[in-house]
Amino acid sequence: MSSGDGLVYLVGEEKSLRELLLDSDVLPLLQGLLALGAGSASIMDQDGEELWGAAGPGARGEVLAQLPIYLEGEQVARLKVSGEAERRAGLKACAELLKVALDTVIRNNLKRVLTTEIHTSVVNSSHEALLQINADLTLSEARYRELAANLETRVKERTAELRRAHTHILQQEKMAAIGQLAAGVAHEINNPLGFITSNLHTLQKYVARFCAMLQFYRDHLNLDLPIETVSAEGERKWRELKLPQVMADVADLLSQSLTGAERVTRIVADLKGFSHVDEAQDMPVDLNEELERTLGVLSHALNGRAEVIRELQPLPRITCHPQLPGQIFLNLVQNALTHAAGETRIVLGSIFDGERIRISVADNGPGVPAELRGQIFEPFYTTLPVGSGTGMGLAVVYEAVLKLGGTVTVADAPGGGADFIITIPIVKGEG
Amino acid sequence: MIEYNESERRMVLKLVYYGPALSGKTTNLLQLHEQLTRQGRGELMVLDTSGDRTIYFDLLPFFLTAPSGLRIKVKAYTVPGQVCHDATRKAVLQRADGVAFIADSNPDEAQSNFASFDNLERNLSLVGQDIDLVPLVIQFNKRDLPNAISEEELRNTWEPTGIPVQMASAISGIGVTETFAALAGLVYRRVDARFALAATHGLSCEDFVRQLTCMRDDSAVGEP
Prior knowledge:
By secondary structure, chain A is of the alpha+beta class. Chain A is built from nine helices and 13 strands. The N terminus of chain A is likely disordered.
């Protein structure tokens, strides 16, 4: 049977003897009978047509044996053997043997054909199923390819977007930190500035009194009054203007104001040093100095609110952008201040072991649970209520430490709290 | 029907033994081969390739001639019961004239029976046949199992469907010929309706079934 798409076998389709037996299966058997003395041997179909035959030279003789050949229980042919009558017994036995042999060959060939048929049929249908699956897969692969191609572009776009946003937010965070710092520092400057202004106002009044006193003497000297009178009048005026108290106060006012002005000068110097506004190039930096500068600009937040313990050892200078250490220490100390509860204690340690600088900022706050330690340096991660923290402080630290070629980790501080440890390897020949 | 050739006066019918894996389909054919006379019966072709499981199918052919001279060949096939050989089952089921569904009486196999019956229904429809029209008998095999589902329960379940139910223990040859005869009877009625076996060819249902299920006479000369 054939259909549109190639050969299709119907299981059970009838087979003829010609389809099942090859000449090479049958003829040698028939030839064998001739060799045994038969005149002729043939296989005839049911209509008497010869399917296979073998005959000796000039041999006729009589029909010695006619045996039925069965295919699937149906007689489909017969084996006919002719020869000399006196050979009948032997040749008949040989014909029986040949029939058994043919039966066996037929059965085996039929088995093979049936197996092949079902196999082909199954393979064909499986092949069709596979082709269908293949077509479906090709289609879905094309969809996925398209998706994947787009996805790559989309991911690239999103990544670039995120990177821009990240940079932007880090920048904002730095600006916000500077803003906070500015507010703190402004307060710090306002305080001395306040009393300096107040002192100046007082001094302004005092100077007016001095002027009044001087004017009094100058007027009285012009009147040529007796010196006693001038002296007595002057003494009265002196007291009236309360100059003894004023004079006692002036020294205090001036020294106070000077101290205040010096404080402002120092704050500005700290801030300038901390921000390194004038230095954009990499330069040798002493991290202990930077730590002190940071504490200086944070003095408004630290004084009276936190105990700072310094366990600092001399460090070699490292070459880096001078703003980076300040960013690190500012954020770590602010972090400690934010999370510490009750009496805040911040322990700052620094040590150099010949290969690495190790700086630790430990607080006595609640500490960082082990399962969160992988996340706290990620941008936007915060344990504070929404709106209270940007989640960027430690991300800024992480970024800055990375730029120094170091690592930052968090551990448990002795006695509880978080201990942020910065490790910076020192390349030989540096420092 | 595999073939009907009026001019050659030839008809080839296909019967299929269907059912779950290891329910005894091949055993049924082996027993038929054993019990029925050699006259008009071909050799059993067991086309399995690995041990005791049927991977391809088994074939037991029968041959008979109607009084009219119509030569009728009946080929009984088994299908592999394993789920994975569905393509073979479909191929064998093509143009089937009747189906004997060999079910397992083991209550643990009830699920397999249902799954296989579902599969039969689906595959029949895939080869363009309707399970309600196809001559079908159900044989509950392995009645010898001590935990076999009770006959009463099976009959209560299946007889309302109108499908003839046979009880068998194929391993000991019980119920095998009866199942085959029941299926042959149903197939005859369907073929007779289309090809007038009785009217045109002089072949009655009884003759048809009797010729197919002629028991071996042990007193006669045995096979060589």
